[in-house]
Specification:
- This protein is an alpha+beta fold.
- The chain folds into three domains: about 130 residues, no CATH class; about 90 residues, no CATH class; about 60 residues, OB fold (Dihydrolipoamide Acetyltransferase, E2P), CATH 2.40.50.
- About 40% of the residues lie in helices and about 15% in strands.
- It has a six-stranded antiparallel beta sheet, with no helix packed on it. It has a two-stranded antiparallel sheet with strand order 1-2.
- Helix 1 runs parallel beside helix 3, helix 3 runs antiparallel to helix 4 and helix 9 packs parallel to helix 11.
- The longest helix is centred in the N-terminal third of the chain and has 14 residues.
- The N and C termini lie far apart (about 55 Å).
- The N terminus is likely disordered.
Length: about 325
Amino acid sequence: MGRFEPTGKIDVPGLEHSVAELPWGVLRGALGPSDGTAGALSNVPSALAVLRHAPLYATHPEEIDEAFEVLERHAIRHRLLYPVAVTIAPFLFDFMRRRSPLSSRIADVIAEYAAAAGTLEDRLRDRLFQLIADHGPEIMDWFGVHERALAALAIHVEAIRPAYLARLAAATTISPFALLALTELGEAPGRTELLALELLDDTRVPDIARAAAAAFLSLEASELTVALRERIDAALTPAMPAALANLVTRLWVPTIARPVVAPKLHDAEVVFAGERLVLVRAGSRSVTLPWHNAPVHKGDVIQVGITAHGQPKLALINEPDGRVKIIDF
């Protein structure tokens, strides 16, 4: 595939649309014309031919990667979708129907196009959304297989949403992708809340799955008790919002709302007090407080509120007149 001259006639038997006869030279992408005249990474027909015959390229994974690079960097770039993507999409659905060994990656490309469709002209956006809606029954077959892409399509394409929610309402298990999608949609169909609670408390599953359940429950739980808030907070460690965002990167930005949980107070001895921070020892651990010009000195004992993740939230100090002053970090 890695050639820089314009693409000639390519025979791709069985495709409902002819790759060779489409005017790729006038279909614009990020790099210009899509016929290869702007370089190998603009050669859309050649990329589609590689993906159509993926088994033949199994021993040449670099060719497959280059084909996907065309679809992911020429048809879309910096989350800006180009008109050629609307022409590419029918071919991708055709590959999905043929159960391509690259189906998961192809489904993600379709979902990425849908996520960025708002950057197209209205008529092109509507055409792409209509194409996706027309493939609704096929897309529902992705349930349990291509969960990431399916969840993204349910978020971005309203026509897909009712069938997706109906499938989730009848489901006996739920994926992290579905939980994050439901958080965006503000929905909790069927037993999803119960399934999320089970996932939250299951220490055998990956931490990222428990964090997705926590993110869902923090916004969609029917009752946020103090105990549930604490369990959600424990699962949403400081690193988890970024990890969840990475889980669905390029498809959507998940909404993560950490519940308010009162920190536990600890007696802490001041070890160091500087102009910008204070270092204290609370039991067996050292904690750094972002406290500018703190009115404390080495050896003072104060109370510090610390979260379940070891982060300082507040400090309590006694004023000379007996009042207690709260410093919120």
